[in-house]
């Protein structure tokens, strides 16, 4: 590479436009590959986009801080998107009212299981305190998980990565587990996917059945709420 | 459409204000979500333009995770050092959570409940 090209890159890297464009392009490339592979769960578009972007940043010796100056505009929209989760919740409100008790009990059990087993296993295997709080909200949609993690001295960016990995694991292996334990009820399958694997699990549930997808979306919203309330209580109780 | 985008932002802002002023443990956007849900329940329906804005945001939800996900480059060393703990916790916890939630929901929702079948 010539010195001129290097100067052009350095100039562009200081403006938010480059990071924004690269983020959108990498995600669309990821989604294209995901679609081409017949929506294979391991080829998650977020995972592909992250790999592509990290490679570009490392190859060009660009810092994450520089990248984030531009990418923060995309990141910022996570807040409004969380508010918008009220829409699928509202659409399912009748169904929720009908089986409210069953949903509430399973959701609470799932939410507690997610937090306690994640922290428990990580603690047994010698993870640091910072990792423990970063991993505790791993089943919750990223904006909420990051908020919780930050509040208790975790690393929000580590939490985001753990949340995304959790979603990919849930989407890839969740249906296998559900088949293994013989759960055929689509409402129960959806609720489980959304509770454990948030939006990425929900996207997967929608591919199987409309009903599973609806319950998964509902569980994602409710677990965000449950974890945001329960985790601070559990955390101050235990530590 | 701009009105409803503003409304969504306003719900989040109100959520942040409530969080700080009342010292709530819940993140601002989640309070905003509850406020919007309460508003919809009062209104009794979702206005078309709000559905347009909200569904566009949710349809691209996974894109919004990307900038945070790139942050993995800051934690490569940390994840490498604790790879076993992190990997086992993520896989074990996620799969156990799916099983526990699904089994309880199936057991509770089954009797006299036709919602699950279609």
For the secondary structure, the number of strands of chain B is: 0
Largest interface: A-B, 115 and 75 residues
- Number-wise, the strands of chain A total 0
Number of helices of chain A: 13
- The value of Rg of chain B in angstroms is 20 Å
Mean pLDDT of chain A: 89
- The portion of residues assigned to helices of chain B is over 70%
Report the portion of residues of chain B in β strands. Answer: under 5%
Q: Bin the strand percentage of chain A.
A: under 5%
Contiguous helical run count of chain B? 6
CA-based shape of chain A:
globular
Quaternary structure annotation = heterodimer
Which structural category fits the helices and strands of chain B?
Answer: mainly alpha
Distance between the termini of chain B: 35 Å
The poorly predicted ranges of chain A are none
Low-confidence stretches of chain B: 112-118
Spatial shape of chain B? extended
Order of helices and strands of chain B: HHHHHH
Q: Indicate the mean pLDDT of chain B.
A: 89
- Using the CA coordinates, give the radius of gyration of chain A: 19 Å
Task: Explain what this protein looks like in three dimensions.
The complex is a heterodimer of chains A (239) and B (118). Chain A has two domains: 3-76, no CATH class; 83-238, no CATH class. The model of chain A has no long low-confidence stretch (mean pLDDT 89). Chain A has helices spanning 3-13, 16-36, 45-59, 64-76, 78-84, 86-91, 93-98, 100-124, 129-135, 142-151, 156-180, 186-208, 210-238. In chain A, helix 11 packs across helix 12 (186-208). Helices cover 83% and strands 0% of the residues of chain A. Chain A has 13 helices and no strands. The N and C termini of chain A lie far apart (53 Å). Chain A is an all-alpha fold and 239 residues long. The two termini of chain B are 35 Å apart. Helix content of chain B is 74%, strand content 0%. Chain B is an all-alpha fold and 118 residues long. Chain B folds into two domains: 1-59; 69-118, no CATH class. In chain B, 42% of the residues are buried. Chains A and B meet through helix 2, helix 3, helix 4, helix 5 and helix 6 of A and helix 1, helix 2, helix 3, helix 4 and helix 6 of B. Chain A: This is LrgB family protein. Chain A: InterPro entries: CidB/LrgB. Chain A: It is a multi-pass membrane protein.
């Amino acid at each position: 590479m010539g010195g001129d090209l290097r100067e052009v890159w350095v100039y562009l890297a200081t403006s938010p436009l480059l990071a924004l464009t690269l983020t959108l392009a990498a995600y669309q490339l990821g989604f294209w590959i995901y679609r081409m592979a017949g929506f294979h769960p391991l080829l998650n578009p977020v995972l592909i986009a992250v790999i592509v972007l990290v490679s570009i940043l490392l190859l060009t010796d660009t810092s994450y801080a520089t990248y984030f100056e531009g990418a923060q505009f995309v990141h910022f929209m996570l807040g409004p998107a969380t508010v918008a989760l009220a829409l699928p919740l509202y659409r399912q409100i009748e169904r929720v009212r009908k089986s409210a008790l069953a949903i509430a009990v399973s959701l609470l059990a799932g939410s507690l299981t997610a937090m306690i087993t994640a922290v428990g296993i990580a603690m047994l295997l010698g993870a640091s305190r910072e990792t423990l709080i970063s991993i505790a909200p791993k089943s919750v949609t990223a904006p909420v998980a990051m908020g919780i993690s930050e509040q208790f001295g975790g690393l929000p960016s580590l939490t985001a990565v753990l949340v995304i990995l959790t979603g990919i694991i849930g989407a890839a292996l969740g249906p296998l587990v559900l088949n293994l334990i013989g759960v055929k009820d689509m409402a129960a399958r959806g609720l489980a996917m959304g509770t454990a694997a948030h939006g990425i699990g929900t996207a997967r549930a929608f591919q199987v059945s409309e009903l599973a997808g609806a319950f998964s979306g509902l569980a994602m919203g409710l677990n965000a709420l449950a974890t945001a309330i329960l985790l601070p209580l559990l955390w101050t109780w235990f530590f | 459409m701009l009105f409803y985008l503003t409304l969504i932002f306003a719900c989040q802002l109100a959520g942040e204000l409530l969080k700080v002023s009342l010292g709530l443990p819940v993140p601002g956007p989640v309070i905003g979500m509850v406020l919007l849900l309460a508003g919809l329940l009062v209104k009794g329906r979702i206005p078309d333009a709000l559905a347009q804005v909200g569904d566009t945001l949710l349809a691209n939800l996974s894109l919004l995770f990307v900038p945070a996900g790139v942050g993995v480059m800051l934690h490569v060393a940390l994840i490498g050092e604790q790879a076993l703990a992190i990997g086992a916790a993520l896989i074990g916890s996620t799969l156990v959570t799916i099983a526990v939630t699904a089994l309880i929901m199936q057991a509770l929702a089954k009797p006299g409940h036709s919602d699950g079948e279609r």
